[in-house]
């Protein structure tokens, strides 16, 4: 949710890191963003769960990768 919220606002995601246990927004705002970005017009709860699960794994792996660290890549992959 934290990434999607910043993405919608046009903020730079390259330097953002997930903040565990931090609460942002409301449950309704979270659901609205998931529905907007999941890519399915009328998703089931299972489809929303799969979307959030997959997105979470991808973002966690991205944060753990040295190749996605701004200090490592500097400005060579800006916005990638």
Automatic annotation (TrEMBL):
Stretches assigned to coiled coil: none
GO biological process: negative regulation of non-canonical Wnt signaling pathway; sprouting angiogenesis; ubiquitin-dependent protein catabolic process
GO cellular component terms, A-Z: cytosol; membrane; nucleolus
GO molecular function: ATP hydrolysis activity; ligase activity; ubiquitin-protein transferase activity
Keywords from the named record: Ligase
Name of protein: RN213 ligase
Lineage: Eukaryota, Metazoa, Chordata, Craniata, Vertebrata
Gene: Rnf213_1
């Amino acid at each position: 949710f934290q990434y999607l919220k910043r993405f919608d606002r046009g903020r730079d995601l390259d330097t953002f890191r997930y903040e565990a246990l931090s609460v942002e927004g409301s449950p309704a705002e979270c659901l609205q963003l998931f529905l907007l970005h999941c890519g399915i017009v009328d998703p089931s709860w299972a489809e929303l769960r799969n979307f959030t699960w997959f997105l979470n794994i991808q973002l966690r792996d991205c944060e753990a990768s040295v190749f996605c660290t701004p200090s490592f890549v500097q400005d060579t992959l800006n916005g990638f």
